[in-house]
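User: These chains co-purify. Model them together.
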Amino acid sequence: MSAPRRGGRRILVTAATSSLGRGFCQDLYADLEHVDHVFAVAEQEDLPYYFRDLHRDRFTYWSANLLKERHLKDLFLAERFRAQGIDQIVHFGFLRTTKLLRVPPGEAVEGTRRLLEFAQASGIEHLVYLSGCLVYRLRPWTSAVLDEQAELDFDPESDAWIRARVDADLLCRTFLDQDRPRVTVVRPGPIIGRNVSSHLDDLLDGYLVTTLAGFDPMIRPIHSSDVLKAIHRCVDARPRGVFNVAGPDVAPLSVFARLTGRPTVALPGPALRPVNRLQRLLGLTTCDLSTLPNWLRYPCVLDTSKIEEKLDFRATHHIKFGES
Amino acid sequence: MTPLQRGLVRRALGLLDGARALERLDGMPFRDEGFGYDRFGLEREGFWGAYLGARQLYRRWFRVRSTGHEHVPREGRAILFANHSGLLPFDGAMITVDLLERLSPPRATRAIVDHFAFALPWVGLFMQRTGQVPGTTRNFADLLRQDELVLVFPEGTRAIVKPFRERYRLRRFNVGFVELALEHEAPVIPVSVVGAEEQAPILFGSKALGRKLGMPIFPVTPTFPLLGPLGLIPYPSRYHIAYGEPIWLHREYPREASRDPAALQAIAERLRQRVQDMVDLGLRARDGRAS
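Assistant: Joint model of the two components:
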């Protein structure tokens, strides 16, 4: 391996053992020209096998649960962390839809708040927060295309996890007028990719894909590799603000369900929840449709013109199933 | 639809009636986002199917007569604004079919529709697939940016539920389309529809019952609810559609007028009066009185 050039970026990545976090750490590590050090943080105690080949001069793995204040303090006060002079953080905050349900939603928001405060106190220059399209409120009168100013889901009847995502997104936005850290909020459309576990990925990954009869909303998913490229672009450009990012394909939900090749059935509203609950009990799906009622009804096509204009970023990966 | 389903639908529609009609529509501009749909949910085959169905109504049921097509631009953004009536929006469908039949090349209109319809299962889906769009400022502006021909009924739903005794008396216009016409420098084209009021004469309506059912009012006509859903079938009154000369608002008013509520209201009232005059003229012509 060639010796790294000093003076490049030193980046901390949270949720580094998630599918996206792992891919992003490896992308950063491969960027010898611009990245000096990657500081991967995740809950898993042992160094994951896929990070074992990475050289310790340019890569650190740190086990911590960022929802615990003690762990966060230990991280930011650690000699290893301070010695690396970390200047950017990429926070994959709320990646999973169901597996995180072990944690109370409010605690996850609190974890994001503490991370922001520690980042500010430590003089971190830039923080990228990965939000998502679930923060937008979808209603019959929602526009066909949602820009970054679209209404967020403050509905008290929404699922607690949706509201937690909105809260965390808003927390990051409160830092938009701060000098340090500069905050970039990235809101991808529904992510599709191996082991990503987004709401759409979970839905399409079931043995039987169930949708709502009488509705077939237009959606604009994005492949996980494009999400990583978008975050990489944000890390490079360090913009301040909120950016939607979505893939090149716009089509109804049923089209993407059909592309999976799995049997698809549209059920009437009253039957959908019991069938979905039964599917989850039998382990046939991980998607909890009771948390996503409007997402199955109304369109969610993100307007990506802002990131195209300001960062010259366009997603290129078309959605195909049965490929890695 | 799968490609196989699409092929079958095309064959079926072609056999049904309109092989030649569909050939004409083949040249119609369509912004396919990659899977046979545009970003608003319009599906070409869905549009064709609805067109061929509505064409039967256009020719055999409502026996539409129309004038003034030369005023409708063949390309570029434009807003058609018309009087609204008749309980169910057949007037919008007939204007759409009329322009597909009479313009060369045919041009699809994108109707702006009240939100409540999109919350109804199947109804909202049908509207999306046939090119109708929920009425939001962003949707309207996006359509104009795409140089589409947009159809609006500025009276809103209060016009289609007015009692029969108030027929052909236009309600106050909403101002949103005026604002967008000024901002996007789009010509507005007045359209009058005579005949739709008689298709479903509303004797009276219940707002309270309507609210419970998610509708503006619950209407009572000579046949509804007496005959159940069959009572909603429109009476076969002949339609007379007239297109007026385009009005270029941005040439007459400064752009700042789009941010002045009083100015917008005054322009909307002027446009309402224009359509009212056209409707009165159409009524006189229909009833055989001198115009």
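Chain B touches chain A through 27 residues (CB under 8 Å).
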